[in-house]
Amino acid sequence: MQLLFLVWEQLGVNLKQALSRQVAAAATVLFLATGCSSAEVVPETSTPAVQVQADSPTEITVWVSEAQALGLEVVAAQFLMDTGTRVNLVVKENLQPDFLGAGPGTGPDIILGSYDWQPELVAAGKLEPIDVSGLAEGFIPGAIQAFAYQGQQYGLPVSQENAALACVLEAMPTAPETFQEAVAAGLAISLNDGAGDPYHFYALQTSFGAPVFETAEDGSYLTVLGMGTEAGFAFAAWLSDNATSFELASNTRNIKEQLVAGTKACWLTGPWNGNWFNEQFGESGWAAYPVPPAGPYPGSTFSGATGAMVASGSDAVATATKFVLEYLGSSQGQLALFQGTGKAPAELAALEQSSASKIAYEFGMAGLESVPMPVIAEMDSIWVPWAAAQVGIIRGDDEPAVIWQKMLDEINASLGY
What we know:
Layout: H1 3-11, H2 21-26, H3 29-32, E1 59-64, H4 66-83, E2 86-91, H5 95-101, E3 110-114, H6 118-123, E4 127-128, H7 141-146, E5 148-149, E6 152-153, E7 156-162, E8 164-168, H8 179-185, E9 187-188, H9 198-206, E10 213-215, E11 221-225, H10 230-241, H11 252-261, E12 266-269, H12 274-281, E13 286-289, E14 302-311, H13 317-328, H14 331-341, H15 348-352, H16 358-366, E15 371-372, H17 383-395, H18 400-415
C-alpha cells in the first residue's frame, strides 16, 4: 500500500494551494503508466497487492467536499491498485442534506463529514456502526470519542480542530505551566461583549473536574449533568475569586487590538485565527500552547472533528469499511487528506508529520487532551444559562454558589429532571 503514497510524498505538493484537480492528478500520472486509471477496474488477469473476495464490488462511491477530493485522489488510486475496486469521488456542496435525501441506490457508500451530523443521520437510519478498536490508540482520543454516539461508533476521524492558547513569543516564549502565569503575561478570553463564552472557558472548568455532561465508557455523552458536583461549585468559586482576570466587554476586535499593542500576550482561540497571527507576528513570532490548568487537573478544550462514515444503505459495507479503516485511517491517507484540507490530522503519527504546517500542527498538538463538544439534543438547553452564570459570577451579581445553583436548576427544569 506504499507505492503511490511514496510518490505523493516525493512530489511535495500542497494541494490546499492548488487551484484545480490537475495538481492532485499529478500523483496518479505514474500510475497511468501501468495502463490503468482511477476510473477503470483492474483487469482480472492482474494480481492486486491485497487479495479481495470474488464478490467484492468493482466500485464504491465516496461523497466529499472539493478540498477532501483533492487529497483523496492518490488514496483512491492506491485502493484501486491494491484491491481492484475503483473509488468514485463525488464532490457535493450540500453533503448532509443530499445524503439525508438520497433514496435507495442513489446515495454513497461513504460520506466524509462533521461529527455533529450524527444525531440527524443516526435518527434517519443512514449510518452503519464500525469497529475502530484496532486503530483507536493511534488517534487523538477526543477525535475518536467524537464519533461515539448513543453507544455506537459511527465514524473514523480524519481531522480535528480545537482551541488552544495562542501567544506572542516575545511575551510568552514557552508554554505556561499555570493559569496565573498566562494571566501575568496578559491573557485574553473573549466574553462576547458580556454575553459569556462557555466554549472557550471549558478548559478552565474541566481543570476542576466539572464536565458539562458525564460520559459512558465508550466516550459518548450521557444526559447526566457533570457540573452539578462539588467540582462545579469549586470552579464557580474560583471564577469569582479571579473575576478581575476577565473583561466582560472583551470581543474579537478589541482582543486583536490588545495583542498588536502588546497589552495582551495570549488569546484562548482556535486555528481559525492562525492566519491572523501569521500576518501580525510572522510564523516565528507566535506559538500555540495547551491551555494551562486553573484547577487541580489538566483541562480539556472543546474540539470538533471530521470523519469518514459508512452508509447503512451501502451494498458494499465490507469494502467501504476496509477503505475507511485501512486507507483513510492510515498515516498516509490522513496526510493526503491534510494536504487537501489543511486541517490537523486526527491520527497521531500523521499529526507529527504535519509539523511543516504551523497552524495545524501546533493547534493539533495543543489539543491532544481536548474533548468533542457534545452534540446531544440536551446541549441546546445548556448554552444560555451556562453563559449567563459565568457572566453573573464575574460581574459579582450574587454569591458564586447561588448563581451556579440557579443555573443548574434552570437547566434541570428545561431537561425535565
